[in-house]
Records
---
Amino acid sequence: MLESFLANYPGPFWTDAVRSEILENIGDEPCNEILAASFLGTPVVVGTGDLLDVFRIQVALGGSAKDPKQHLGEAECIALADKDHGGIITDDNAAYDFVERRLGTNRVIDTIEVLRASVANGDIEPSQAQQIADAVRNSGRSLRREHPTTLTAEYFR
Amino acid sequence: MQPHIGARIKQLREAAGLRASDLADLVGMDATALSKIENDRRNVKSTELADLAKALGVSPLALLADEPILSKLSVAARRAGNGLTMGAAYDELMRLSELHVVLSDAGIHASPDLASVPDVRGQSWFDGAEALARWANTKLPITSDGDQRFASLADKIEEVLSLDVFVQEFEGDALSGAAITDRSFPLLFVNSTHPRPRCLFTLAHELGHVLANHNGDGITLDRELSGSTEDERMANAFAASFLMPSETIRSRIEEDGREPSTLVALTYELGVSFESLIYRLHNLRIINAEGRDQLMSVNWRQLALLLNNPSLRGNVSKFGVSKLQSRDSSRPARRPPGVLLRRASSGYVKGVIGVQPLADLVGTDSELMLDQFSQKQDIDQVIGILKSDFSQQTDETPEDLFSGTPF
């Protein structure tokens, strides 16, 4: 589903710092799946000239010198999206709110919105979207706070 | 390639006394790769830069641009010794400074009002302290008595001078106070793990550093306020003169005599400890060193338990006595740096920063804050509501008026 969704966009879809964060959790099944997902392409290595923006954003997200890798993956993605007029997919409430304010409401979406777009494109059925969203929650990940605790298939139409 | 990154890394590595191979080992990097980075012959990844900054004890921002305040903080920390740099208080000062840099880079600056502070450069530490205390007593008169003095002074410093005052408890941390004297982000920090009178003295001491524009590095980290250098002596003399003005002490002793009740009343009203007041009596030559030492040997805290006796408490009210008796266990409330908080709020609205740094400043949970902000409010709509005619059209009973939960 994600591969089909991302096929509508030119990429790149992830960065080196994001890959590093995932590599730290290698062995977890979802992390292994992401690392094996060829449709994500090669992660972007942010150029040295853009690092100042990256670390400013890292501080803006709550990172600090004490833990300079905290939020680094998100910061790289936001810096690149800002520079290349791209967008962000995130279920992190704070990051979503930040990108909305910084880049505009049309530059950020979450899992539910990806699922809705996939339903609208005919890639999946609403009931499948519901199952995917439930599976996300059941695996211990959270969806954005504005979404109801109980999701129905109708929610994805 | 961003110029000078390699040179900055090399400079900080050498300042930290590390060989290139040591730093390479610390970050798990090949020594050749580090050498190329230091000589700007190889790009550095964000994750590598994060590792290098962490190993060097600096902010990544300080490696990427000339950010004087972040570099100075690291230099001051190295000079102060590891005991001060390992603590949570130092980490928090670094975090606040990084936030300041990000806001400044986006055009949201601090604007301290220090133009009228007398220039005491060239004066002796004693004369300089007296001149600054006279100025501060005019510009920042503390009208509150006793335990209210700390909050009152902190308010005055922020309102009148637009300096940041940051108060937070860091239990067991070696850092008792700090002053960022750099004019781009002047900030006074008090570790409120100590009793209120000590915190008041620390606040005034740090104010002295900022007013005197001490320290070419722009930052002073204080473990003890021991007066071991001229700058420290000056800050102590300023704090003593500002908090315990000569005329106040002399006139009170003249009126009420050398009685325990006089000492009690002065201690309570000025919000200082018995020890600070006794040192001040010696500073002012009201007593000599022997008298100071004998008074210092008195167990004033035990005597404070007897203050319910009117002859001992003098003019101090019963309420004041109970406040004085509990003073050693009372700590100032947490206080976020107010000027930085205003700048951060502005930065949040403009999308310069996210909710997390703002929530950290306020001392709340970011999700809770997002809940509070989630309902978008149009200020014109609020003005419209306030200006609408809501005069009562029907008689409401007292029960109607007081029904519901007002919070």
Note: The domain at 1-66 of chain B is CATH 1.10.260.40 (434 Repressor (Amino-terminal Domain)).
---
Amino acid sequence: MFRFPVLILSLALVLAGLAGCAGRPQPDNVLVVGLPDEPLTLDPRFALDAASTRLNQVLYAGLLKLDASGRPEPDLAQDWRVEGGRIYTFRLRPGLTFHDGRDLTARDVVFTYASILDPSLNSPKRLVLQVIDKVEALDRLTVRFSLREVSAPFESELTLGVVPAGAGPDLAQRPVGAGPFSLVEWRPGQRLDLAAHRDYFMGRPAGDGIVFKVVPDDTTRVLELLQGNLDFVLNGAPPDLLGRLAREKSLRIIESPSANYAYLAFNLAHPDLGRLEVRRAIARAVDRRAMIRYLLDGRAEPATGLLPPGHWAYTGQVADYAYDPEAAARDLDRAGLKPDEKGVRLKLLYKATLQDLSRRKAEVLQDQLARVGIKLEIRSFEWATFFTDVRQGNFQLCSLEWVGLAEPDIYYHVFHSQSRPPQGANRGGYANPELDRLLIKARQCLDREERAGLYARVQQIVARDLPYLSLWHPRHVLVLRRGWTGFELTPQADLAGLWRIRRED
Amino acid sequence: MSRYLLRRLAWLVPTCLGVVSLIFLLRPLIPGDPVDFILGESAQAADREALRRAFHLDEPLARQYLLFLEGLARGDLGVSIHSRRPVARLILERYPATLKLTLASILIALVLALPLGVLSAVRRESALDHTAMAGALLGAAMPNFWLGPLLILLFAVQLGWLPVSGAGSPAHLVLPALTLGTSLAAILTRMVRSSLLEVIGQEYMTTARAKGLSEGVVICKHGLRNALIPVITLLGLQFGALLAGSIITETIFAWPGLGRLTVTAIQARDFPLLQGCLLTISLSYVLINLLTDLAYAAADPRIRLNRGGR
Amino acid sequence: MSRLNLKLRLGLAVLAALMASNLLAPALSPFPPLEQRLEEGLNPPSLSHPLGQDKFGRDVLSRLLHGARVSLLIGLSTALVSLLIGALLGAAAAYLGGWADELLTRVIDVLLAFPGILLALALMAILGPSLNNVILALCAVGWVGYARLARGQVLSLREREFVLAARAAGAGLGRVVVVHLLPNLLAPLLVEATFGVGSAIVAEAGLSFLGFGVQPPTPSWGAMLNQGRQFLLVAPHLTTFPGLAILVVVLGFNFLGDGLRDRLDPRLTRSRVN
């Protein structure tokens, strides 16, 4: 009944026939990008997750885009003017087209923003655009925004992708934008195939298309790079494997400073953490450079505040607490936290996520803080539980990262006393009236130099008060296959830059 | 026979409903709000309320349960909170892939377990027996997330015979099925061995030998046919374990299956999607078990006669 | 008890080694398992660190020895607790028959149709990740197998002479179950439990992959294997040694179970008459 030899032989034959089906190479001028997650929605009015955002950078274009220092510059709009601080008039470039050939006009811009502001659509971007009172098309290529109040951060919000007028829920699966590439096919869970948009207003893309391949597992992604199936992996290779990848002759590693910020958050409602002396002691007990060297393969800069050094509003003239465990111990002594018979001065709870890096940070922190007598208990949770806890103020210490910081108004979102969840992200409950005043003033100040001065003061206050312990600004790390050229890695890691990537000849 | 069938089919619905109800029961205990994932961290209270209303999340759990049952009766599994697409569509996109993987794993498990089990039984207590069992157990004792990358390293990166991950050609199926199938192989081998041992000493076997048939034919034709019956039943039972075990394998191999979708649904607290996935998995499991039990009954006349009454 | 078969001997040897390392871990460990030396991270095996060092420079051998405790705890607790719950419920249901039996069968059906690992995930989301919750989650999924087994056995034993005799003599439910039924169940259940230890240890590794399990910095073999996974290409010793440990222990327990069953086989069908 079962002839084993035949069965095994046939299996062997099948396998032999399948051999050679490995790693089918892509047609020459098509880049294969590795994605860690599948995008959820390709409608920029709804996309919040990282994967969707990345795809939308390539599929859509917005009125404006951000330059390397975070300043807005023209994209679909060729210029704009501001009147009375509240009227923004944008002139669109002529001859703009969507992927399906339709013209992109002021009507589409108005539709995009009006639909977001429509409460029935439940768009997550509605909150930040609430400042818009009215948006209208003055003529075919001119759009006017009338704001309720003066808002300096407003321009940064206009990088949002413009969708065709009348676009419905279908857009999430079948996107139509004006970006350099258009969606050809989406195989759920597997890959997205994009083709070059010939009429892209900056010029026809240098490449023929892009394939986004979904590879959730870190190690598998690296193995795909090694086998030659992926050409482009941005921030998707574990730091410890970068050395191995660097030794591969067919790959090269490109780094750039980023606009990301890693930090340790304190819950200021906690009796001990609410005291500045204790937070200062913890700041001195943490060896950030060691963490950068050993956990991130050295690919990060120690941070002094939310804004990275390249940012237009950045200042380095702020308090910085160097690694000094003896001073930390003295600080704790002075604060009245003396060691008990086991050497423990203080017990704290640290909540981490399930991500590898998060847990490793936790373990190193645990070890470093133990040396000054602070006993850290680590509890790691999956993201939903973790985030719910943190938002409800149900934590003592935790470490997170802000990604893609461009608008300094983030300080309002994070540190203003009115910004406690769910209004904002002030999870630790920091409240400083002087800071509040400065933040509101900076919001309404349209003069960039004056704003920079205000935010310099803000950065100084925050660095002094330590509601967050600044850890580092990780660098962007791109693993790119040799033979591809033309992509510029910016701090925002904007993938729209892929329109220039092409095979070297 | 038909009465048996009807009775089993009748229990299908309550069993599957039981599975989904379990999630409803657990829901109030699980922390995390799906609305957070859609609207992000800071959202106006009004927006959150509106979204909760849109998905009936603001209503009492009992009412949501009734709504779900109502929808089910219409064949409507609801809409995924996370991606706002119909749940049924999402599941249909991923289910065939999981089915393929599961069936391939069973095939590989059988290919491994049958020869090893027979060897083990025939040469009982010998070094061969121990080695065969150890070999079979190897797959079960190695967690999938270790075995998988090792297989990739060897067959894909070093030898270049197979692709690393993803789906799209039969070659893509080999490594994930191998990873998943080896854990099943261990249990199957043991089952083949023990049921063959039980059967080997029996009368019809000695009769066959007396008739002059070679040992090989005796074992293969007569022994195995009867030993396979409990194996089939075991496969049915293990199907559920395979569906669940595919979660890890699907992640490692970027296999676009239902397992990963279910885990994502849990992580995002996407309850409609989770309910749909669970329903699909449990329905599959119950149906497969029904089929294997029917095959069992069909293969073994004694059972049929028992049911039909003497 | 003339000669213990080979499988049984191998299995017992592994068990003994495990127990020994459990007791002697602190004495045998060359380094404290939690001591970090970041600058020595990912070092391969050397004279002072025979099994190498992990990402934080901690000694793998010491962590492996201490991790044995955790893995053993998880394996044994899960198996024994599942066995107890399953055996009691299964035996009682089968013995009582009627609605109790129907109810249990339905519950078992539902739980079997529910993908085990997802139930474990849901439980951990509710209860939070910790060693005890891992055991709880694994038990919640694991008792079902023992219940089925116990039920099947009791169904066949129920009508046997010695049971009927005991009931005729006026023994109550409890006495019949505990004194007469359970001893006959014990053998097959125990065999099943030895397999259960192995699968619990592997399941813990699987849960570690999904992020649940012991909290850092406590070492467990499953957690070590999972943590080492990322370094497969650059520091294979981090997966090889915990993996081998799991392999040997699981094989050992499986052999123990097989050997036990082979040994007890003739006795399984014989009933114990008081």
Note: The radius of gyration of chain A is 25 Å.
